[in-house]
């Protein structure tokens, strides 16, 4: 009886340890880094990101380009999955990740040609607006490059 209790205790301990590790791996580890220093290649000057008590980022930069690039990084840090999902919705590419059940939705969005309209608008941007969009994309891509795992 004592031996069975000891074995049961070890099994419970192992299950709790594995559960704790799984919780850390899938819940805590993917959370954005809110403390410390990060290096973002391409910035021309130092940028400060402070998060308030609710986790809302407040960005201070000496140039608009640095600010927008950092905003892209922080947005990807917080909402990359959502950004990708919305991009796929607008282009009618949901079935690529969710399967044939959403083909009707993809057909509706492809009929609306939202992706083509976005491409036209992106090509029509000029000057400062184009530079800001490029900086934002650089920030998002920098986050993706740093977090490939």
At a glance:
This protein is mostly helical. The protein contains six helices and two strands.
Provide the low-confidence segments as ranges: none
Q: Please give the largest β-sheet.
A: 2 strands, antiparallel
Tally of individual domains: 2
Distance between the termini: 46 Å
User: Helix content range of the residues, please?
Assistant: 55-70%
| CATH topology assignment of the largest domain | Penicillin Amidohydrolase, domain 1
Strand % is: 5-15%
> H/E series, N to C?
HEEHHHHH
Oligomer: single chain
Q: What is the CATH class name of the largest domain?
A: Mainly Alpha
Return Rg in Å.
22 Å
Quickly count the helices.
Answer: 6
What is the count of β-strands? 2
Shape: flat
- The CATH homologous superfamily name of the largest domain equals Penicillin Amidohydrolase, domain 1
Q: What is the mean predicted local confidence, pLDDT? A: 88
Major β-sheet strand ordering? 1-2
Which CATH architecture of the largest domain?
A: Orthogonal Bundle
The helix-and-strand class reads mainly alpha
Describe the protein:
The protein is mainly α and 149 residues long. It folds into 2 domains: 1-31; 34-146, Penicillin Amidohydrolase, domain 1 (Orthogonal Bundle), CATH 1.10.439. 67% of the residues lie in helices and 5% in strands. It has 6 helices and 2 strands. The chain has helices at residues 2-28, 64-91, 95-98, 103-112, 114-124, 127-146, and strands at 48-51, 57-60. The protein has a two-stranded antiparallel ribbon. Helix 2 packs across helix 6. The termini are far apart.
Write the layout of secondary structure elements.
Elements: H1 2-28, E1 48-51, E2 57-60, H2 64-91, H3 95-98, H4 103-112, H5 114-124, H6 127-146
Helix pairs in contact: 2-6
